[in-house]
Structure formats: C-alpha cells, structure tokens
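User: Design a sequence. Structure:
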C-alpha cells in the first residue's frame, strides 16, 4: 500500500501512449512486458544516476542529522545560517517541523531504518503534538517560539496540508495509529472550513482575497497529503476529495497549451500574471500520477496524457541548455522572467524528468536529468558547508538581500521556515527508489 513506485499500469501504458503523444518522443523499439528493453548501456547509465542521487542524499541527511535537532528545546532549530549554526529568529514553523518529520520518516523507510532515525522522528512527532496541536479543532498552530509556546495561532491551509502529510507518513512508516487519527481529524476540520460546494476545490477567499481564492500551490500539496492519508486510512471522504482535486488539476489548473495558472477566482477564472512557475508545474504532474495509483486510476489514459503534457511543457520551456538546471519562471511564449535557480525547483525537475523518461522512453529527458544533477553538484550544492543554496542568481551570486523572491532567497541560510530537508530528501530518495524499481 505504501510503496512509492513507478506503478505498473502507467508503465504498461507507456509504449501505446508514446505513439499518441508525439514522434519527437520515441520509445525504444524493443519492448518486453510493456517496458522498453533495458540495454546494458542504459542499465549502466541509470545505475550511475542512481549512485549520484544516493550520494547527494547521504550528504543532505548528514547535514540535517548533525545540525537540525534542537536538543535543549525540542524539534528542529528555526533558523540555521550557511554553516548550520543556529541563529535568530528562533521561532519554529509548523511547515518546517512537519516537513522534517516527513523527510526523516521517508529516510527511515527507504534508506536507513536505524534506532537513531526513529528516535529523531519520535522526538519531532512529540514536539509537534505537544506544541502545535490545538485540540479545540484538530488543526495546528502556524508558529511557536523556540521552546514551543504559540506565537501565531492562525490555521494556514498550506501549513495544515503538511500537517496531514507529515503525520500520515509517520503513521505509515512506524504503524502509529494515533498519528493517522491526528492527520484524519485535521483533514476533516480543514475540509469543513474550506470546501466549496458550488465551484469545488477549497475556497480561500477569506484568507487570500477574491483574486487568490483558489491557489495551485495549495491544491498541489493537498493532493500529495490526501494521497498519503488515503493510503493509511482508506477513508471514503479523503478518496472523494482526492479524486476531485485530481480532476480540478486536469480540467481547471492545466491550461489547453499545457502550462498551469497559479491563481484563480472562486469560479476558476484565472487571475494575475500568466507567469509559469516551472517547479510547480513539474511537481503537480508527477504528484497527479502518484495520486492516480492510490485511487485506482493508474490506467486512465486521459489523466496520464494531461499530466505528461504539462510535465513535458515545463521540461522544455524551463530548462537551461547551457548550464543545466531549471529557471524559476517564464511566460507561455518561452521568455524567461526569473532566471534564478531555486533549490526546490531543481528537486522537482529531477522527479518529473524521471517520470517523463519512464513514460516516453525519450532519452532527452534523461539528458536533462543528468545536466540538472550536474548543476546541483557543481553550483546548487554547498561543497564547503553542506546542504544546498536556496537560490543562485543569474550572475552566480547567492544570499543577496535585494534578490527577487521569498525571504529564504535573501540570505545563505540553510534552514528557515520555508527551507527544510523536505524537497531535497524527497527527490533524492524517490528517484533512487524509482530507478531501483525500474531496473528490477
């Protein structure tokens, strides 16, 4: 149930789909049981990619094992500078703490099932339940101070989605039924607050205003969260909402041209700039494909076509053919509007590029995956102090307070409210796992 795999239905469909998509994306001629024949040369190439992500994963987890935990107050430190030293502000966010719980749970399940990792997970779980949980509604506070006292008690949908995800994953990995109950109760509370019975999806008008009533980023992570929650609980309402959010993504968020709009009015009219956030589009595509397996839609050809269309679109438009890696944003006509290389965008790229290759057999997708790993290893990765730089500007600089974008791009901090172990570990563990499954 809990396997994160390149599911059989999609693999069986890949050859037939290739013909329908485009002759520019040919599958290898020889196929066995619906999967392209793995030649010795291709096996060697995939094993090399697997080794590269394995090594990067070891480096990232070592940084967080050594630098992340706060032994005095519990949880993980709120802010770490470039060297991994705790600095101010010391407040701890729900999103970052629960993401660390998710990352270490995944690491335990697929890479290092040791008492050390389990203890880290158990301590994080205890800190989150003791200090973020609000028994009055089953949801979680947004921010606590260093020792766990509430600082900001708002209930933010994005953060709550990660509470569901992290608790469900912890429950799945360690068979903790009470963690699954916390996750399910949080879901029911959130669903009651935000469900839009008229236009469907979740209505965030009260929190974000009418022009951002529907937010692609939130929907994407809710799909991820509901997928794991359904796997661990089998709850019918979770399944219903997961199917609904998949269909919304396919029919409302992904535009006819293949890219996604970021914001919508309540009735799903697109609002704001048409800029494409490449990392979001790449991420949404593979999360839909994973969700499809959970709800028995892994052979839904329309779903696969639509998800792959948006993944291939951003794979083409966002890639830097000169230096490797993926730019931040661009317009539908292909003009890059934000040339910075953001760490989480690179993570989502390698996830999506693997799926693109697996579904099409197009080795150009592997070429881009290799070049993105080149970029990560030589530029995004901090070879001196470990972990990765949040962002690399177009001129190669990092940590400039005048840098465009969120606060985590304005310094060289390795840990902040919105920068944790989640994106790196997810990509590096999953890609290794997917390649293992593919080769075996």
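Assistant: Done.
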């Amino acid at each position: 149930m809990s396997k994160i795999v390149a599911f059989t239905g999609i693999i069986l469909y890949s050859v037939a789909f290739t013909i329908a998509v485009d002759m520019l994306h040919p599958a290898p001629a020889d196929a066995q049981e619906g999967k392209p024949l793995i030649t010795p040369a291709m096996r060697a190439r995939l094993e090399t990619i697997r080794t590269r992500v394995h090594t990067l994963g070891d480096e990232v987890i070592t940084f967080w094992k050594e630098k992340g935990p706060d032994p005095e107050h519990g949880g993980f430190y709120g802010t770490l500078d470039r060297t991994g030293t705790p600095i101010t502000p010391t407040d701890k966010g729900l999103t970052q703490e629960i993401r660390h719980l998710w990352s270490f749970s995944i690491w335990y399940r697929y890479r290092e099932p040791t008492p050390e990792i389990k203890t880290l997970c158990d301590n994080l779980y205890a800190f989150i339940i003791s200090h973020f949980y609000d028994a009055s509604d089953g949801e979680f506070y947004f921010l606590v101070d260093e020792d766990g006292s509430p600082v900001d008690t708002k209930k933010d949908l994005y953060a709550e989605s990660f509470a569901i995800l992290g608790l469900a994953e912890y429950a799945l990995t360690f068979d903790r039924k009470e963690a699954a109950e916390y996750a399910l109760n949080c879901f029911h509370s959130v669903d009651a607050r935000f469900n839009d019975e008229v236009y469907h999806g979740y209505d965030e008008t009260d929190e974000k205003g009418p022009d951002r009533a529907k937010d692609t980023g939130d929907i994407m992570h809710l799909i991820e969260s509901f997928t794991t929650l359904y796997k661990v609980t089998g709850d019918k309402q979770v399944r219903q909402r997961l199917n609904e959010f998949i269909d919304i993504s396919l029919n409302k968020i992904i535009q006819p041209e293949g890219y996604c709009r970021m914001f919508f009015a309540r009735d799903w009219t697109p609002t704001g700039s048409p800029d494409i956030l490449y990392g979001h589009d790449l991420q949404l595509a593979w999360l839909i494909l994973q969700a499809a397996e959970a709800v028995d839609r892994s052979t839904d050809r329309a779903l696969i076509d639509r998800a792959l269309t948006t993944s291939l679109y951003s794979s083409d438009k966002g890639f830097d053919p000169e230096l490797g890696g993926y730019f931040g944003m661009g317009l539908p006509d292909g003009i890059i509007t934000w040339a910075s290389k953001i760490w989480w965008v690179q993570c989502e790229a390698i996830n999506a590029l693997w799926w693109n290759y697996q579904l099409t057999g197009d080795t150009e997708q592997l070429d881009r995956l290799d070049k993105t790993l080149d970029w990560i290893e030589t530029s995004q990765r901090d070879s001196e102090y470990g972990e990765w730089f949040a962002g690399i500007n177009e001129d190669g600089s990092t940590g400039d307070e005048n840098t465009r974008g969120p606060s985590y791009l304005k310094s060289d901090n390795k840990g902040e409210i919105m920068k944790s172990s989640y994106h790196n570990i997810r990509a590096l563990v999953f890609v290794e796992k997917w390649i293992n499954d593919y080769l075996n």
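The chain has two domains: 1-67+273-440, 90-272. Confidence is low (pLDDT under 50) at residues 1-33.
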